[in-house]
Amino acid sequence: MGRVIFHIDLNAFFANAEILLNPSLANKPIAVAGSTRRSVVSTCSYEARAYGIHSAMSIQEAKKRCKDLIIVQSHHEYYEELSNKFISYIKKFTDNVEQVSIDECYANMSEAIKKYKYPLDLAWQIQKELLQLYGLKCSIGVAPNKFLAKMASDMKKPMGITVLRISEVPTKLWPLDIKEMRGIGQKTLPYVKALGINTIGDLANYQDINQLKMIFGKNTEILLAKAHGKDNDEIINNAVAKSMGHSVTLLEDINDYQEIKGIFNSLSRSLANKLHEAKMAGNIISITVKYYDFKSIVRSKKIDRYIYKQSDIFEHAIELFDSVYNDIPIRLLGVSVQDIKNIDSLNIQLNIFEENDYQNDIKMVVKQLNDQLKLGGKLVLAKDFKKVQKNEN
DNA sequence: TCTGGGGTCCTAGGACCC
DNA sequence: TCTGGGGTCCTAGGACCC
């Protein structure tokens, strides 16, 4: 028997979470979004979606589409908490769980379903319990691989459970619009359409593979296999973050150097806090600068040690920025640290740094002592130091 | 009054080394 | 008078996803 993969997707997660905090928002068109005139919708309720509102839409546009839309400020830490509960709950059924984002995961339920009379009973139980225990609504896709499971969970929302078997690929998968295919985004879509490929079935049955290779390159075979419902991707446990960053869209475009420096200072601080919380440090630092016309550049550099402190991040960020500073108005600034590793795993290196610092401290003390002696000062031996301190107190 | 913020992965060119 | 080739590292850019 093959694998049984679940894709579990929390429905309108942020909106769902906000309704748990404030039940009076239930059954109303709400959108979780920032509060500035440059904000966009992060997630919205299904009532709001009925007006054509969706993620990434500007709140100006969203309000135009629905006069009664309620904009709710996001509470990200709370979402993280709920998300952790969600993942922990799923891990009760299997160790093999891959969290893809804050609101979705894949779980290998090949073993777990054997305890149930009908394979779908497990899906029903998960859906029911997530709602009962945490008030979370979800859709579940059940399939022999990750790709089909993901496509299945998308088919019925909210609170859907969909099984997608290989044998059902021609009837259930092939009629879907080609833009539903993961990996085909805004940029490649026109090229694919130009070949007359409008559905996933069109792609699966396209004959001229060389044409496809011009668009997808190395990815062609994998994409074609997926269009046929085949996918051997493993479910990767506990993937550790590889980068962490912060960016901010400014209320107004700016190009004043001091102002920019101030932004980098606070971005560095929040990033340092985040790294500290996660006990991570990284050795590649990069900045993003998005200009008034939405053109953006990234500058990065590798550092000879792992950093995590605000002062270090800030120093390198400013150095990178200095190399590109001009008078073009800036819309967004960002700082991020890549190749991050857990501080515990870097202990050796960090200890070496601390040792170096310590040696520098000793050198400094020796120098000061020598200076004192030159000036006729008195040398205090270590064993007497505590006595001196006591006397002073 | 257009257009967020958090990420991952891939490609490609130049530097550098053997 | 003609200038290798392979591998790795670093940096920049871009596509994509939620």
Please outline what is shown here.
The protein is α+β, with helices and mostly antiparallel strands and 393 residues long. The chain has 4 domains: 5-12 and 78-167, Alpha-Beta Plaits (2-Layer Sandwich), CATH 3.30.70; 15-75, MutS, DNA mismatch repair protein, domain I (3-Layer(aba) Sandwich), CATH 3.40.1170; 169-227, DNA polymerase, domain 1; 243-392, Dna Ligase, domain 1 (2-Layer Sandwich), CATH 3.30.1490.100. The protein is built from 15 helices and 13 strands.
How would you sum up the major sheet? 5 strands, mixed
Number of helices: 15
Shape: globular
Which architecture of the largest domain does the CATH hierarchy give at level 2?
Answer: 2-Layer Sandwich
- Assigned CATH class of the largest domain: Alpha Beta
Strand order of the largest sheet: 5-6-1-7-8
Provide an overview of this structure:
The C terminus is likely disordered. 29% of the residues are buried. Helix 12 packs antiparallel against helix 13. The termini are far apart. This protein has 4 domains: 98 residues, Alpha-Beta Plaits, CATH 3.30.70; 61 residues, MutS, DNA mismatch repair protein, domain I, CATH 3.40.1170; 59 residues, 5' to 3' exonuclease, C-terminal subdomain (DNA polymerase, domain 1, Orthogonal Bundle); 150 residues, 2-Layer Sandwich (Dna Ligase, domain 1). The protein is globular and about 65 Å long. 42% of the residues lie in helices and 21% in strands. With 393 residues, the chain is of the alpha+beta class. The strands form 3 sheets. It has a 5-stranded mixed sheet. Strands 9, 10, 11, 12 and 13 form a 5-stranded antiparallel sheet that branches. The protein binds a DNA duplex (18 and 18 nucleotides) through strand 3, strand 9, strand 11 and strand 12.
